[in-house]
């Protein structure tokens, strides 16, 4: 297809250019993502209700079935469909270029959809309740693995379309200099995705052959090592993608520029270099891999990756602070933050994602990644407590923020039930934060992970957790209910906007976005490089710091971290007496 036929429209509010073929693909991928979020959310309700000893909703077999489907529909299917939309957006709308190979885009979508339905069908049949990790020698039906493989092939095609689009942008010179930081972040996500999918193929294809009887044996230890090259790296795709969204929102809403492009880019690069390595934190108690490897891997290598996340966690709010202070909100430490648009769900979702990911997901992740401390919480409900803070508070809320932005710009609709939409991020965010923290607490008290019944009803040997564990699980349930209401509200708002949302009036706009213009075949103007920041920051800040508020926040983060680390070592010494 020649470039002259490609159709573009401009969104006058954001200044973004949308290519028509890319736009359609972004829409179908994003809508499908939300549908799976809804399915995963319904399953979350059943799983949570079963974990509450007072409710015990599902019998054993259905619990593991629902848990398997919940994990897969959320962390694989919802997240990756959404990431396809993010990749198409970052490459086309930000670089003002047509999408490469739009027909292949449909192959990506259909393969992923067929794969998703196939895996869900296998789980529904009842012989594939092997959890998201699908550890051998637990067997699942061949369709379970085949579905995942098709899904992965689809995702791989999506990554190649992304790279192809970058090539076209470079050839057609739609931008000057190097690609913008946000495109750079998306590129990092796509590169990690290729590595992830390759690891997935290495492990899932033999497992599929094993399930149909063509391979006789798969070593369970080896399976776990390779599976986590897939499982861990796929979380790094998520992290790179959601941090990219943080930068995007900071730029869109505040006109914020990264405090230092070089530092942010280097931080993204650290992900490629070190994150996959750190996958050993998932196999810290496995026999067969040496302690030396585990310790090197989870400390030296992992800390470099964590450093990258901390840099982003600092520069994103820092850049917002600088932008706000430049606008005159220069009083005191936190006026810039107080005066932020807290009623705009694009901002509130993004900021809750940043704080929740850093304080809850980040700190707990580093602490549980220490080989010794890992022994306290291994295979307890602490683990889902930690990762709901990363993949839900962090990634899912960033994707919610992006959705609130895409509804008026991409779909050209005013957000349905806007008053509730303003509330939704707080409900979901607070619910998820409490849910994560209380699960972590219950896990520290020993409550097992993925166990159908914490009361061990009918078991031949009785076991009682400390009473506080039941209280913590009760609190987990209450906050889960809040998160479920918040999540359901999000789905209703997103679907409601598409069905009933008023068309954005491009003269008036909505949340500062002005919605659709008509399509033309004119090539969008060249994306100009923002001039190097010559503006002096002399007049802002306090005591020589341009972003003192962010600096204080970083110190609070550090203090929380040190305290929590200390508490865990202290606790370890008491559960593991030396005599
Ligand atoms: C209202 C929202 C949600 C609630 C209430 C919820 C609740 C739960 C519960 C209770 C468990 C089981 C813990 C256990 O017994 O081991 C679980 C597991 C899990 N959840 Fe969620 N969840 C929610 C959203 C999400 C989202 C958005 C994602 C991913 C993006 C996600 C990913 C997972 C995964 C991967 C598992 C583990 C499955 C396994 O062990 O194989 N959840 N969730
Ligand atoms: Cu990991």
Strand residue content: under 5%
Largest sheet: 2 strands, antiparallel
Enumerate the distinct ligands. protoporphyrin IX containing FE, copper (II) ion
Shape type: globular
- Structural class by helix and strand composition: mainly alpha
> Given the structure, what is the number of helices?
15
Kindly provide the radius of gyration, computed on alpha-carbon positions and rounded to a whole number of angstroms. Answer: 24 Å
Write out the strand line-up for the largest beta sheet, numbering strands in chain order: 1-2
Q: What is the residue-mean pLDDT, rounded to a whole number?
A: 91
| Tally of strands | 2
Fraction of residues in helices?
A: 55-70%
Euclidean distance between termini CA atoms: 75 Å
Pick out the low-confidence regions. none
Order of H and E elements:
EEHHHHHHHHHHHHHHH
Give a short summary of the structure:
The chain has 579 residues and is mainly alpha-helical.
């Amino acid at each position: 297809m020649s470039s002259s036929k490609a159709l573009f429209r401009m969104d006058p509010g954001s200044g973004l250019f949308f290519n028509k073929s890319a736009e359609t693909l972004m829409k179908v991928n994003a809508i499908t993502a939300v549908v799976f979020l809804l399915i995963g959310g319904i399953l979350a309700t059943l799983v949570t209700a079963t974990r509450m000893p007072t409710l015990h909703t599902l019998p054993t077999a259905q619990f593991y079935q629902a848990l398997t489907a919940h994990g897969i529909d959320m962390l694989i299917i919802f997240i990756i469909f959404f990431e396809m939309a993010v990749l198409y957006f970052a490459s086309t709308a930000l670089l003002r270029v047509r999408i490469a190979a739009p027909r292949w885009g449909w192959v990506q979508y259909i393969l992923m959809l067929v794969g998703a339905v196939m895996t869900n069908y296998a789980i529904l049949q009842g012989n594939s309740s092997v959890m998201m990790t699908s550890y051998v020698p637990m067997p699942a039906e061949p369709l379970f693995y085949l579905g995942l493989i098709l899904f992965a092939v689809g995702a791989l095609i999506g990554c190649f379309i992304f790279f192809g689009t970058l090539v076209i942008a470079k050839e057609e010179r739609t931008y000057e200099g190097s690609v913008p930081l946000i495109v750079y972040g998306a590129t990092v996500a796509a590169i990690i995705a290729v590595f992830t999918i390759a690891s997935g193929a290495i492990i899932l294809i033999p497992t599929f052959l094993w399930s149909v009887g063509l391979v006789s044996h798969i070593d369970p230890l080896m399976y776990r090592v390779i599976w986590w090259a897939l499982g861990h790296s796929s979380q790094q795709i998520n992290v790179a993608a959601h941090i990219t969204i943080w930068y995007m929102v900071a730029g869109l809403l505040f006109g914020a520029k990264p405090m230092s492009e070089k530092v942010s880019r280097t931080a993204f690069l650290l992900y490629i270099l070190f994150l996959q390595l750190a996958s050993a934190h998932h196999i810290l108690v496995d026999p067969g891999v040496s302690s030396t490897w585990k310790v090197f891997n989870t400390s030296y290598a992992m800390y470099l990756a964590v450093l990258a996340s901390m840099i982003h966690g600092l520069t994103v709010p820092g850049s917002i602070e600088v932008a706000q202070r430049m606008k005159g909100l220069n009083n005191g430490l936190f006026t810039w933050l107080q005066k932020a648009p807290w009623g705009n769900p694009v901002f509130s979702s993004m900021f809750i994602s940043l704080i929740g990911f850093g304080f809850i997901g980040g700190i707990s992740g580093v602490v549980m990644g220490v080989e010794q401390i890992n022994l306290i919480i291994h295979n307890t409900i602490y683990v889902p407590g930690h990762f709901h803070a990363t993949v839900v508070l962090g990634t899912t809320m960033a994707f919610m923020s992006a959705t609130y932005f895409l509804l008026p710009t991409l779909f050209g609709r005013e957000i349905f039930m806007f008053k509730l939409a303003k509330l939704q991020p707080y409900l979901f965010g607070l619910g998820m934060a409490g849910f994560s923290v209380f699960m972590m607490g219950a896990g520290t008290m020993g409550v097992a992970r993925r166990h159908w019944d914490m009361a061990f009803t009918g078991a031949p040997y009785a076991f009682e957790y400390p009473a506080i564990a039941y209280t913590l699980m009760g609190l987990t349930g209450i906050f889960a209910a809040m998160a479920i209401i918040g999540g359901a509200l999000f789905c209703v708002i997103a679907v409601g906007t598409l069905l009933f949302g008023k068309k954005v009036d491009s003269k008036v706009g909505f949340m500062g976005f002005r919605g659709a213009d008509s399509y033309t075949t004119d090539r969008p103007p060249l994306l100009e490089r923002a001039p190097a920041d010559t503006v002096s920051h002399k007049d802002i800040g306090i005591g020589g710091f341009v972003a003192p508020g962010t600096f204080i926040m970083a110190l609070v983060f550090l203090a929380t971290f040190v305290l929590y680390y200390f508490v865990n070592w202290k606790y370890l010494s008491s559960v593991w007496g030396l005599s």
